[in-house]
């Protein structure tokens, strides 16, 4: 700030007419004032433009962070909604087996495919929770708190629904018997899943409202992200092709083994 003051004084000195220094009257005073005004306007425009550019940059960064977080919350919520639906489907199949036990052999296979699983990416969560710079850029403490709560509920869902049910199934092997599959308490996990889903939906909606983000904007952002991911999926496609070849080769080996009667 001291340096700026010196520059202003120097500009004024440089633009001060010699005739004013000699005291030549009113016309010279007017010329001096115009020169001073021009210098002042120039300084204001320089610093004002820099401030506008800096503010626009911060607003853009803020919007990018907010959209990244909202997109992650959207995907997380969709995963929980899917898991919630799978548990309700499982309970419906349990009910069908109670009404007709002859369906046990067929439906227990279906039940085995309906175990809810999630693979949440923690990158966005870590960026928001561990970076003071990110929090300052967003500039909304309540939004940051809500996002933190959302991720806490998400972790609770993963631990007490997905991980817990998988561990219980591995331990109890409910699909091994009619009694086992009808005694397995899917209802407990379904209630826990529903509770997490409701909490996450509430926090997600609040975050959208306080940051003025619409469903349409999230959809546009989603499409852009999917395009980027698709463009970078060449290596994954190659891996899929390699896997298919390996499975096809194994199939031929199994067919040859049957012909040799080695089964």
Characterise this structure.
With 263 residues, the protein is mostly helical. 84% of the residues lie in helices and 0% in strands. It has eleven helices and no strands. Helix 3 runs antiparallel to helix 4 and helix 3 packs across helix 10. The protein is elongated, with a radius of gyration of 33 Å. 15% of the residues are buried.
Number of helices: 11
Give the integer mean of the pLDDT values. Answer: 81
H/E series:
HHHHHHHHHHH
What Rg do the Cα atoms give? 33 Å
Low-confidence stretches: none
Largest sheet: none
Quote the distance from N terminus to C terminus. 87 Å
Share of helix among residues?
over 70%
What would the principal axes of the Cα set say about the shape?
elongated
Topology summary:
Elements: H1 2-15, H2 18-21, H3 26-99, H4 104-112, H5 123-130, H6 132-138, H7 141-172, H8 178-183, H9 186-210, H10 215-231, H11 234-259
Helix pairs in contact: 1-3, 3-4, 3-7, 3-9, 3-10, 7-9
Descriptive keywords:
single chain; mainly alpha; 263 residues; 11 helices; elongated
Quick summary of this structure?
The chain is mostly helical. Helices cover 84% and strands 0% of the residues.
């Amino acid at each position: 700030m001291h340096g700026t003051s010196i520059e202003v004084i120097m500009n004024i000195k440089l633009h001060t007419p010699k005739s004013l220094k000699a005291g030549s009257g009113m016309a010279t005073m007017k010329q001096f004032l115009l020169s001073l005004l021009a210098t002042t306007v120039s300084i204001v425009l320089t610093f004002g433009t820099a401030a506008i550019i800096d503010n626009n940059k911060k607003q853009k960064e803020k919007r990018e962070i907010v959209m990244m977080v909202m997109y992650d919350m959207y995907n997380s919520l969709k995963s929980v909604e899917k898991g919630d639906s799978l548990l309700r489907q499982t309970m419906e199949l349990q009910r069908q087996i109670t009404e007709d036990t002859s369906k046990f052999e067929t439906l227990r296979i279906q039940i085995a495919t309906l175990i809810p699983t999630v693979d949440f990416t923690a990158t966005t969560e870590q960026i928001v929770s561990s970076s003071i710079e990110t929090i300052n850029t967003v500039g909304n403490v309540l939004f940051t708190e809500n996002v933190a709560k959302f991720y806490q509920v998400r972790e609770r869902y993963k631990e007490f629904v997905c991980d817990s049910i998988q561990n219980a199934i591995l331990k109890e092997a409910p699909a091994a018997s009619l009694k086992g599959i009808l005694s397995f308490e899917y209802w407990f996990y379904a209630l826990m899943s529903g509770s997490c889903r409701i909490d996450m939906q509430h926090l997600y909606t609040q975050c959208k409202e306080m940051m003025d983000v619409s469903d349409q904007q999230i959809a546009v952002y989603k499409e852009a992200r999917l395009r980027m991911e698709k463009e970078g999926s060449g290596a994954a496609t190659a891996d899929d092709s390699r896997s298919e070849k390996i499975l096809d080769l194994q199939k031929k080996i199994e067919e040859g083994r049957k012909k040799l009667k080695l089964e």
